[in-house]
Amino acid sequence: MSPVSQNLRPATLVSFQSAKHCIAASIAALVLWAPAAEAQARQVASISAPFDLSMSAAGTYLSAYSAGAQRDTAAAATFFREALRFDPRNAELMERAFVAALANGNVDDGFALADKLLQRDPKNGLANLVTGVKAMKGKRFVVARGSFAKGGGGRQRDITATLLTGWSYFGSGDSKRAIETLDKLKDARFGLFRDYHVALMADLANQRAEAVKRIKAAYEAEKTTLRVVDAYARIMARSGDVVEAKRAYDAFDQLLPRHPIIRAGLAELASGKPMGPVVNDAEQGAAEVLYGLGSVGGSQNDELAAMIYLRLALYMDPKNALAVVTLADVYERLKQNDQAIDVYKMVPASSPLKDNSEIQVGLLLETAGRSEEAQKHLGALADAHPKDPETLLALANLQRSRKQFVEAADTYTRVLEVSGGGKTDWSTLYFRGVSYERQKKWPLAEADFRKALEYYPDQPMVLNYLGYSLVDQGLKLDEAFKLLRRAVELRPTDGYVIDSLAWAYYRLGQFPEAVRELEKAIELKPADPVINDHLGDAYWRVGRKLEARFQWNHARDLNPEPEELPKILAKIDNGLTDEPAPAAASIDPPKVEEPKNGG
């Protein structure tokens, strides 16, 4: 995932491990995709779009299961709805159609099916949750509480129903009862959710002391969570402590630079106008509950639960941009790029996340093979936002991935001109250096690599690339090996970094050392075609020719780059020439990695 996309990932409101089972349990009673049905579904031909609805009942049923197993929500909702038409009294099928409709955002279908399910089973937990949410949206708070009180018990009811019930009391105008309801969450694992939502309620009710007390407790428990930090800063500012609000935003900005929500908060503070609250009413408070639970479910790979919670959150508050982004991220991780693109486009134009969501659309278009659209989309964004470093960086990374190194270097230069400078520029310098190196502009590339190391002296990616490039050109060899060995010290389990050191040994004719390091690298990255190819070369040079051909055959079968395949096939047929190429010859550059947030 690109650095830009990672900046969009909303941190959740609770420890993932402590909340995992509570969230999954809310739909655990619905065994949606039974293993036997999945096995049958795998035998069905891939589903076409638009969907073919002319098939038999059995075909429709198996297509529904196939789509469900693949978490293809659009197909699942369509085929389960059609399957239910063939067998409208089938309770299990009704439940599956219900869940598929919710996951795909077909809330009206979900509401209708919830009513039917409750006629059969008045204690159906998910159906009661859905009818309660519908009632809250209509401001029928007493009815909502009645729905939340029904259904299954256990920890999922403790967290979900209790929080929503609290907000229903708040909607009824009883903030005291609302806070008392949330304070029934005694389990320490729910403390962050409890204090966070009580703080939001107290803030709306102008109970400043209580709001500050509760948000401080939440902030002390989770200072690195975006939503908590934003709420903390807003409540502190609304309580008169603007200095502390700015400090909290600045601290998060050091952790994750230039996040759009943090930048928007700082701009709002700087304007001198009163800061707005995180939520404005009970409906948005309920949406915040559902968003928080959905984001935890998504982070735990419980995609179905996450989709349902997030779809309900967006029903309650269609402008909740973090819920939109989180839902899009779920689809993206499922590699359903078209669905992810459609969801990212739902981010409201007024949201600070709008521009970054459009960047994600461009990156997903490229991932989906729609390269011309991706280039056009990101180019238009860069023209519209010529001083936004994130937009320019996304375009530059796209150009580099396409080997448009001249254009990429120019765009990285534009990024550096508008970024404001600072240590976070190391990655931009690194990528511009790579772009210069690929153009054979070594002095410019070396200058960028060395400047990046001034900002981040122990950055293994930069150490690796600079050291390898120096060896490749036969320059400053003592320094080059120091750089490469330091990179290996920092990344002792990174097969690509070890491969760089090994290949440097090879280029200098130190073949036994190259074999030793490449054998380490291949243990770490056994499926990498480049490392297998390198090990084959090193084996040949030390006389292990049978093993060399084995490694080349393996490299051939691992989908190498198209330009490398003929070279590998030639080595399989003829071996290597008697003498290796000199160290200064042109060789493949080291693998370029995408940096993680914060380096």
Would you give an account of this structure?
This protein is mainly α. It has 33 helices and no strands. Helix 11 (175-182) runs antiparallel to helix 12 and helix 18 packs antiparallel against helix 19. The longest helix has 18 residues, at 282-299. The chain is globular and about 85 Å long. It starts with a helix and ends in a 25-residue tail after the last helix.
Give me the Rg, rounded.
28 Å
**Cα end-to-end separation:** 14 Å
Number of helices: 33
In percent, how helical is the residue content?
55-70%
Record field, number of beta strands: 0
Contiguous uncertain segments of 5+ residues:
1-49, 583-587, 595-599
Briefly note the structural class of the backbone: mainly alpha
**Mass-distribution shape:** globular
Residue-averaged pLDDT: 83
Beta-sheet strand percentage? Answer: under 5%
Main sheet: strands, sense, barrel: none
Can you summarize this structure?
This protein is 69% helix and 0% strand. It is an all-alpha fold.
Supply database-style keywords.
599 residues, mainly alpha
Question: Secondary structure elements and their pairing?
Answer:
Elements: H1 3-8, H2 16-24, H3 35-41, H4 57-69, H5 73-86, H6 91-103, H7 107-120, H8 125-137, H9 141-149, H10 155-171, H11 175-182, H12 191-204, H13 208-221, H14 226-238, H15 242-255, H16 260-270, H17 282-299, H18 303-316, H19 321-333, H20 337-344, H21 354-367, H22 371-384, H23 389-401, H24 405-418, H25 426-438, H26 442-455, H27 460-472, H28 477-490, H29 495-507, H30 511-524, H31 529-541, H32 545-556, H33 565-574
Helix pairs in contact: 2-10, 2-17, 3-4, 4-5, 5-6, 6-7, 7-8, 8-9, 8-10, 9-10, 10-11, 10-12, 10-17, 11-12, 12-13, 12-14, 13-14, 14-15, 14-16, 15-16, 17-18, 17-19, 18-19, 19-20, 20-21, 21-22, 21-23, 22-23, 23-24, 24-25, 25-26, 26-27, 27-28, 27-29, 28-29, 29-30, 30-31, 31-32, 32-33
